[in-house]
Specification:
With about 230 residues, this protein is mainly alpha-helical. It has eight helices and no strands. The longest helix has about 70 residues. The radius of gyration is 37 Å and the shape is rod-shaped.
Amino acid sequence: MKKLFILAIAAVGMTFASCDNKAKAPAGEDTTEVVDTLAVLTEEANKAADDVIANLTENLEKKDTGAIEAALNSVKEKIQEYLAKNPEVAKEYLAKVQNFIKENKEKITAAVGSIPAISSLVDGISNIPTESVDGLLNATDAFKALGIDAASTVKDAAAAAGDAVEGAVEGAKDAAEGAVDAAKDAAADAADAAKDAAKDAVQSGKDAAAGAVDKAADGAKKALGL
């Protein structure tokens, strides 16, 4: 009996440990995912910056005003995209592209002349501060010049992030509750199994005792010649 109950308790303990590990896993996975996502996003932004710089370089040589304007518009779109994803990444992307534009402003002017739409894009991109994320996010007028509502973009992104965090918390809560329920069920099953085993052991003992009594009685009868 003692051995059976010890085994039952051990089984319950193992179940709790397993469930606890499962409940904790999402938190660790979420942290890793956040780190990986930032690294991937940064790599993506650097590649996007390199691609647009290569595009601009090629089309400056060709003096293709349409392609240059399209490339600068794509920069504007990327700025807004990265602001929504991560302002730090937006800052890095913009700084890289901005540096190229500032260094090649004379070439751009020579290639496109004084086309208002392109001049507006060049000036707008060049005038956004990239020294810090705070400076970037507070550059309301510079963003307005490019037709970007940075405050609204970042606000929406923050709201989406808040919803994601809330969802993760609820998911962790559900996982924890599920783990507790699973542990309770496992404990109940283990207890039932122990009870059944104990009953079987008692019955086996009774059967063995009855068999021994019958055998002894038969032996006594034979000894008496009955």
